[in-house]
Write a structure and sequence with these properties.
Blueprint lengths: L6 E8 L10 E8 L4 E5 L6 H9 L6 E6 L2 E2 L7 E4 L11 H6 L9 H14 L15 H13 L5 E5 L7 H18 L2 E6 L2 H7 L2 E6 L4 E7 L11 H14 L4
Parallel strand pairs: 3-8, 3-9, 6-7, 7-8
Antiparallel strand pairs: 1-2, 1-4, 4-5, 9-10
């Protein structure tokens, strides 16, 4: 079904136990190439965050098959990192310690773990804030820490569940640029879940548009615009408006 690299979903369906209503997800088929950046967009209730949890291995109760790098997904794995909308930092740990938590089970020496933390603090632009605690950080800085924690194990796939959804517009715009830089630097596969069509067109190679009740893929839109992309550019606005008018004009 799948190649040895990348992500493949075949006939993936999800229904919560005892729920007689329509399934949350219904026969999702999707292939993501290694190194690709895709986004999944849809109205609330379409199952996009549920789908991300299945890919992460956080929920194994589904029908169909999910394969990553030739192996069936049955549980969480260090090859797949995930970042949520809520940064979920431990308030009693500083920046460096919050990142290091993700390395607890990594097969690395103490020195290698310390070096990895330093590298990822640098990667997300937080040098000088290593000893700061979450309450001393802005929302955008806290999300940078969460992204560093998601990357520190060097996953081959990074899953992002609306990571900028609670941020103000200026901070969100800055972190979108940072995410593109990190993606290029790390050379990994990214799957981003969002409700922001602007974000999809700015960041993704392909936009997976989901429809609700039950959650299905309505269309996969190729984004061939050159990078870096400017949200004010006519081609970006044109593609965004096309997606919005076709799928979200009544939402």
């Amino acid at each position: 079904m799948a190649t040895l690299e990348g992500l493949a979903l075949q006939h993936v369906s999800k229904r919560y136990e005892g729920d007689a209503a329509a399934p949350v997800l219904d026969r999702i088929d999707l292939t993501v190439k290694a190194g690709e950046f895709i986004s999944i967009v849809g109205a609330s209730g379409c199952g996009k965050s549920t789908l991300l949890r299945l890919i992460a291995g956080l929920d194994g109760a589904f029908e169909g098959e999910i394969v990553f790098d030739g192996e069936r997904v049955v549980s969480t794995d260090l090859k797949r990192g995930i970042v949520f909308q809520d940064h979920r930092l431990f308030p009693w740990l500083n920046v460096a310690q919050n990142i290091a938590v993700a390395l607890r089970n990594a097969p690395l020496s103490k020195e290698e773990k310390a070096r990895a933390v330093v590298e990822h603090v640098e990667l997300v632009g937080l040098r000088g804030f290593e000893r700061h605690y979450p309450h001393q950080l802005s929302g955008g800085m806290a999300q940078r820490v969460a992204i560093a924690r998601g990357l520190v194990n060097r996953p081959r796939l990074l899953l992002l569940d609306e990571p900028f959804g609670t941020l103000d517009a200026l901070t969100r715009s800055r972190l979108q640029g940072e995410l593109q830089r990190i993606w290029v630097h790390a050379g990994i596969t990214i799957v981003l879940v969002t409700h922001d069509v602007d974000e999809d067109v700015l960041l993704a190679d392909r936009v997976v548009v989901m429809q609700a009740r039950p959650g299905r893929i309505g269309e996969i839109v190729e984004v061939t615009l050159p990078r870096p992309r400017d949200r004010s550019h006519a081609d970006v606005a044109r593609l965004r408006d096309k997606i919005v008018s076709k799928y979200f004009s009544d939402v």
